[in-house]
Design a protein that fits this description.
The complex is a heterodimer of chains A (156) and B (95). Chain A contains four helices and six strands; from the N terminus they run ββααββββαα. Chain A has 156 residues and is an alpha+beta fold. A six-stranded antiparallel beta sheet of chain A has the order 1-2-4-5-6-3, covered by helices on one side. In chain A, β1 and β2 form a beta hairpin. Classes of the chains: A alpha+beta (156), B mainly alpha (95). Chains A and B meet through loops of A and α2 and α3 of B.
């Protein structure tokens, strides 16, 4: 996890295209300037970053389902609940599943667990847009390689 | 069984917190009811679920942008309801 670059996913553990589900992992860094302010003496992973990590997880699922032909952009956050704290150094497991695929949009349900215990969940809406330029697409493909996106899952 | 319009009006009222009695078959979802594109996604989701269809929003938007259709054809509620009926009928025919 590189908080300063908003890279919140370390690796894809499992991508099941037929079940429309994904599991990823990430380790919260032990040190970050974010924790100097949030909070001194009691560093906590901010809830908005937990939501963003669920959005990024859902995004990788949607990129897989869409075979990298569209880019999912977060449009709405519903029913987000932070059920427990996530601390520096924690390894988080995030799972996401497709709840609905509409025309030009999709909804997912995502959960964050630490050591098997549920820490956050949300229902998210994405608009699915054409890649606006080759730079963005190239960046996403490089990121996919970095986190071990299983291309064989979408091109068997 | 309530009409398609009644179901759509109820969905819009509940999704966008618009008084039900202000929603008529002649209401334009965007121009009259002030529903924006993001709120319309919630409405589309509820309609997709309620009717077991997939509103072709991208196709409609493209047709409007290309000047091949007007927003009234798809977003005046009596017309939206007619489109939903067509999609439900087409789904039934192909099942």
């Amino acid at each position: 996890m590189q908080l300063e670059y908003f890279h919140l996913i370390d690796r894809i553990v499992e991508l099941k295209i037929d079940e429309k589900k994904i599991v990823v992992e990430a380790q919260v860094p032990k040190e970050s300037t974010i924790f100097e302010g949030h909070f001194p003496g009691y560093p906590l992973m901010p809830g908005v970053l937990l939501i963003e990590s669920m959005a990024q997880t859902s995004g990788w699922l949607l990129l897989g389902l869409l075979k990298f032909e569209r880019m999912p952009i977060l449009a709405a956050v519903k029913e987000a609940k932070v059920r427990g704290s996530v601390f520096p150094g924690d390894v988080i497991t995030i799972e996401a599943g497709l709840a609905h695929e509409g025309s030009g949009y999709a909804m997912t349900e995502a959960k964050i667990r630490v050591g098997g215990k549920l820490r956050a969940n949300s229902t998210l809406t994405f608009t699915l847009i054409p890649f606006p330029n080759s730079d963005m697409r190239g960046h996403m493909e490089a990121m996919a390689q970095r986190i071990g996106f299983p291309h064989q899952a979408i091109n068997p | 069984m309530s009409s398609t319009f009644d179901q759509v009006a109820t969905i819009i009222a509940e999704t966008c917190d618009i008084p039900r009695d202000t929603i008529t078959p002649e209401s334009h979802a965007i121009d009259d009811l002030g529903i924006d594109s993001l709120d319309f996604l919630d409405i589309a989701f509820a309609i997709d679920k309620a009717f077991g269809i997939k509103l072709p929003l991208e196709k409609w938007t493209q047709e409007v942008n290309d000047g091949k259709a007007t927003t009234e054809q798809y977003f005046v509620l009596k017309n939206l309801s007619a489109r939903i009926d067509e999609l439900v009928a087409a789904k039934g025919a192909s099942a």
